[in-house]
Structures are given as C-alpha cells and as structure tokens.
C-alpha cells in the first residue's frame, strides 16, 4: 500500500458566514455560556453537540447519527462548524450538502461512500531513516543541457544540514531539488528528508532566525538535537479516501485514445469496491501490528431532505459497517415528501427506519436580544461599527424576518455608511440598505400580489 504519496484532499469548509464562530463555547463544567467563542444562546443544542464531541473523542460513537432540526438561520450549520473546530484538525470532518450526491458521473451511493471514507481517519506511525537539520546551504549544480536544448539542467544539489550535534553536507538527486522548491525551503528552515523515498518535509523556521516582531506567519522550531542522520518517528494523518485515491491505479495504456479517456474521466470513478476492500485489509493489518490507529470522524450532511430514498437505504447500510464515522444531519424541513418516493410524507423528509437510528437535537429560534448580540459579534468580525440604536433596530428587523437577513444587511449598510461619510452605521444607513435589499417575506409578498403583473 502506498502511504508516501498520500496528499490530503480534505474539503474546504465554507467558512465565510461562520467565521465568527470559534467553538462551542462551553465552560469547564460542560455548561454552555450564554455568549462564548462567538456563539450566542442555543444552549441546549450546544451542550448536546459537546456531548457528541466527547463521544467522538472517546471513540464511542462510530456508526451513529444525529439530526439537528430547526428553522432556517437557527445555527445548525454553525454548530456543525463549531463541532469540527472542537475536534481539532486531526479528526476528519467532511462537510457535504444533500444535493451533492446528484452528479452525472458518479452514482449517488458512490458519492456517499466516498464521503464516508473521507470522514474516517487513520493515524499511521512509521519509523523512518531521515536526514534532519537546519538548512545552512542549498546549492544546485548546473551542467550544460545534455538533451541538446537551450539552457542548463541541474545535475545535483548540495545541501548543508546542521543540528545541535553537528553538520553534514549531502549531495542529492535533482528530483529532490524540485521538492525543495515545492516546499519553499530556504536557508534557515528546519527540514527532514526521508532517506529511502527522498521526500522533503519542511518542519518550520529555525528559531535562531526568529525576529522580535509578533506579526510573523512562520512557525519557529528549535534546532534539532542528535545527529543529522537518524531514525525518526513520523506520524501521518490520512483518511481512508486519501488511501483509496493514492492506490487507485491509473487507467489505460500509452495510446492517445486512452490518454483522452484519462483526461475526460475524473480519477474518482476508478475507485472500485474491490480496491476499497484491499485498502481495508491493509489498514486492518497496520492496526493489528500497532502501527496505525483508526480515528472515526464526522460526516456532516447539511440539508438532508435533499437526499432520496436510494441514498437513505444506502446510509442505513453504511452506518452498520464496522468502520464508520459519526454522521450529523441537518434539516430545516417540517413534514415533507421523501425524494424518490413522492407520495410518502415524513418528518424532515427522512424515512422512518432511518429516523429510528437518529438522536435528534432541536435548535430554537432566537430572541431579539440574542440576535442583537449575534449581530454585534458579526459586525466586529466584519470590522464594521454600528451605532447602538441602529443595532437595536437591526435586531428588531432580524426578529421580524430572519437572523440571516439581518446579518446580510450589515455589509451593504456598511458600504452606505461609507458613502454617506458616517463613521458608524446609523439607523438611516440601515433603512436605506433595507429599502434596497428586500427580505424573503417582503419579496414573496410582492410576487404574490396580483397587481404586480408577474407571470404566474
Ligand atoms: N447562536 C449563534 N451565535 C452566533 N452566530 C450564529 C448563531 N446561530 C447562527 N449564527 C449565525 O447566523 C447565520 C445563520 O446560521 P446557520 O448556522 O447558517 O443557520 P442554519 O444552518 O440553521 O440555517 C450564520 O452566519 C451563523 O454563523
Ligand atoms: Mg444551514
């Protein structure tokens, strides 16, 4: 099995609208503080979420599912995002939206399967022979290009590495020069090079190069101890999906036709059930030998009512597998038809047999004062100053329409305040923004009005 080439391709969280949320905000007694970590109110749901976090950390919760149910804008997605932050970067968290399963290239069940495997992590421990140290020199040696082209090519690269105990000069293959460039290694960085694969990893900047400025993006690490050439325990966090991809054999031969085929077909379709079985076997062996540890993470399926009956049946099966993440669903629907079984109505559009497996957490609507605090936090993250009376007014608007609309009004109101030359957003700016941009209720009223001549 290839572990070397594994590149983590975890999905980016859509953070923009939740960037003020930094966690669930519980105190040491596991009680949700009314305002903490960017979170306001919704205490019961946050405490429930924290119990889930604990269960995931204790690995007691694999193969179960939770549903966050509540009206739009009550913070379901925000809670899921906070859960992922509480779990930290080492536990996989795979967010998806129900409608993502509808692809023209991959079967719905295949998308689900893939995301399940993205949500299961494996921590692999390996002892490797490495050269480690602070880089003292990088000098690529050039020769005339032997293939007859213009320019020069690199014949080898000389690297100096320094540790607390000594220094060593290495003469390395040009391919390593490429990985040095890729990792953006420069003199003064601490790196290690695996001796049998030649892969380069940049650990950080040596702390003798640290400056007194606080605004530094770099991570400073101490000068490595011991010899330059040594055995080092390398810990890698990968997901089962990463392993599937790394081990999927590139298809086709040398001819043009199959190369075209490769271009047109994304690699995804090559992961077969058989391959997954093989990967699982090797993973189990690693675990038995004590070289790897399984870390079930979270698969978050937002807008779960978008899934159809086939997906739900598949989920039932996937949840019963021995290796399974915890699945968190979110839905804002009441009773609605189950997709693909049009006549059948069900709460949240979820079939009863799956409902039966769920722990359900409700998110309640916010009060006006809670909305005011949320808006205040949000304004701060967006670097906007809002006058006190304007904030109260916006909270009022939020209570009448939705939290989301109120949050969204902040930005245009800020722009208008700028144009009008106010240093803070005033009631006037707010009203102007609300006049320009309608909320959903107001706009649907206009559309429904028979006098407005829409084609219905
Ligand atoms: N309790 C809360 N504290 C702070 N911000 C919140 C809270 N609840 C919701 N928000 C913010 O309000 C907006 C809408 O919430 P969201 O989680 O997207 O709602 P839902 O997924 O339930 O429809 C988001 O920007 C979210 O970050
Ligand atoms: Mg949502």
Automatic annotation (TrEMBL):
Entry coiled-coil feature ranges: none
Protein's UniProt keywords contain Transcription regulation: yes
Biological processes annotated in GO: chromatin organization; DNA repair
Enzyme Commission code(s) on record: 3.6.4.12
Predominant subcellular localization, coarse grouping: nucleus
Reaction(s) the record says it catalyses: ATP + H2O = ADP + phosphate + H(+)
One cellular component (GO) term of this entry: Ino80 complex
Record flagged with keyword Nucleotide-binding: yes
InterPro entries per the UniProt record, alphabetical: AAA+_ATPase (IPR003593), P-loop_NTPase (IPR027417), RuvB-like (IPR027238), RuvB-like_C (IPR041048), RuvBL1/2_DNA/RNA_bd_dom (IPR042487), TIP49_P-loop (IPR010339)
Alphabetic keyword roster: Activator, ATP-binding, Chromatin regulator, DNA damage, DNA repair, Helicase, Hydrolase, Nucleotide-binding, Nucleus, Transcription, Transcription regulation
Top enzyme category: hydrolase
Record GO terms (molecular function): ATP binding; DNA helicase activity; hydrolase activity
Subcellular location: Nucleus
One protein family per Pfam: TIP49_C
Residues of the signal peptide: none
Family membership: Belongs to the RuvB family.
Summary of the function given for this chain in its UniProt record: DNA helicase participates in several chromatin remodeling complexes, including the SWR1 and the INO80 complexes.
The protein's name in its UniProt record: RuvB-like helicase
